[in-house]
Design a protein that fits this description.
With 179 residues, the chain is of the alpha/beta class. The chain has one domain. 36% of the residues lie in helices and 20% in strands. The protein has a 5-stranded mixed beta sheet, with helices on both faces. It has a two-stranded antiparallel ribbon with strand order 2-5. It has a two-stranded antiparallel sheet with strand order 8-9. The longest helix has 19 residues. The radius of gyration is 15 Å and the shape is globular. It starts with a strand and ends in a 10-residue tail after the last strand. The C terminus is likely disordered.
């Protein structure tokens, strides 16, 4: 049985002015490109919300204004612990799972990344070190042309060794989306 790959997408400031499904609530081009990527590379994906923690993309949310980077360290540690517990509730044992993070580092620090690794999961960050413009280009290419989006090696940060070490990991098998 193949190990599951779970996509993690960080929330963003730009949102609709009314409630919507979480996958539709966030309106920035950066956020919009991320689902196109993880739907090809992951078995399942979630949104990491500063306000709500771990969110299934089909959950209805109202707009909110909270950035994880603006809360105290103690609140980030609590948020991380709550998200780790939610992962266990949603997915069961985390050992052997791979988490593909498309979120700022502030989502992975303060215990979330280390907690996933401690539970036996692997955490990779495919866009680590790329400027926002380069990330946008890769996500846009993924939406337009699967082949061009995945040329060359993907540089990732592996949290298994340490949160700051980097190495090149093999690209996951792509999934076909649509006809």
């Amino acid at each position: 049985m193949a190990m599951a790959r779970i996509g993690l997408i960080g929330c963003v400031k730009s949102k609709l002015s009314n409630g919507a499904l979480a996958r539709d609530l966030y309106t920035s081009p950066l956020f919009r490109g991320r689902p196109a990527w993880v739907e090809r590379t992951c078995d399942r994906w979630f949104i990491l919300s500063a306000q709500h923690g771990l969110i299934d993309p089909a959950t209805h949310l109202e707009p909110y204004d909270l950035a994880l980077s603006r809360v105290r360290a103690s609140a980030r540690r609590m948020w991380s612990a709550e998200v780790l517990a939610a992962f266990s509730d949603q997915l069961g044992p985390l050992h052997g799972l791979t988490f593909e993070a498309h979120a700022g580092i502030h989502y992975l620090e303060f215990g979330l990344g280390a907690g996933l690794v401690h539970a036996g999961a692997t955490v990779v960050v495919p866009m680590q070190g790329l400027s926002q413009g380069r990330q946008l280009a890769r996500y846009r290419d993924a939406s337009r042309d699967e082949a061009s989006a995945f040329n060359g090696p993907v540089r990732t940060t592996s949290l298994n060794a340490s949160i700051s070490s980097t190495r090149v990991l093999e690209r996951p098998a792509l999934r076909s989306v649509g006809p």
